[in-house]
Amino acid sequence: MNELEPEQLERLAVQLRELERDLPRAIERAGAGTATVELDQQSVGRLSRMDELQRQAMAKSGRRSLELRLQLVRSALSALAAGEYGVCRECEEAIGYQRLSARPETPFCLPCQSEREARGPR
C-alpha cells in the first residue's frame, strides 16, 4: 500500500478543515435559492414561472450536493483522527495523493469510484 507522506497528510488535513469551515456557508447561500415559487401568474408569466421552478430545482440539487460533500468531509476527518484516512472503503488500498488533493473527502480510489459509477445508483 502506498502510504501518504506526513507533509502530504498535513496538507490534506488543512484542506479538509477548510472545507468543513466553508461548506456550511455555501449551503446557507444555496438555501436562499430554494424558496417557494409564488403561484401568482398575473405578475409572472407562465414561461417565467417555469424558468423559476427549474432554477429552484437546480438550487435544491446543488444544496443537496453540498450537504453530501460536508458529510463526506466530516467522515474523512473522523478517518483521519482514527488513522484510517486515505484508504479506499471498497478495496482497502491506498487512495493516491493526486486524487486526495483534488477531492480530499473522497472515500474511494479511482478504480473503485469508476466501477461504482458504471454500476449506477443502487
Task: Explain the overall architecture.
The chain is globular, with a radius of gyration of 19 Å. The protein is an all-alpha fold and 122 residues long. It has helices at residues 6-31, 46-81, 97-102, 110-119. The chain is built from four helices and no strands. It has a single domain (6-119), classed as DksA, coiled-coil domain (Four Helix Bundle (Hemerythrin (Met), subunit A), Up-down Bundle), CATH 1.20.120.910. The mean pLDDT is 87.
Task: Please render the helix and strand layout as text.
Layout: H1 6-31, H2 46-81, H3 97-102, H4 110-119
Helix pairs in contact: 1-2
Distance between the termini: 29 Å
Low-confidence stretches: none
Number of domains: 1
| Fraction in helix | 55-70%
How do the helices and strands follow one another from N- to C-terminus?
A: HHHH
Name the CATH architecture: Up-down Bundle
What descriptors fit this protein?
122 residues, mainly alpha, Four Helix Bundle (Hemerythrin (Met), subunit A)
Question: How would you concisely characterize the structure shown here?
Answer:
The protein is an all-alpha fold and 122 residues long. Helices cover 64% and strands 0% of the residues. The chain has a single domain, classed as Four Helix Bundle (Hemerythrin (Met), subunit A), CATH 1.20.120.910.
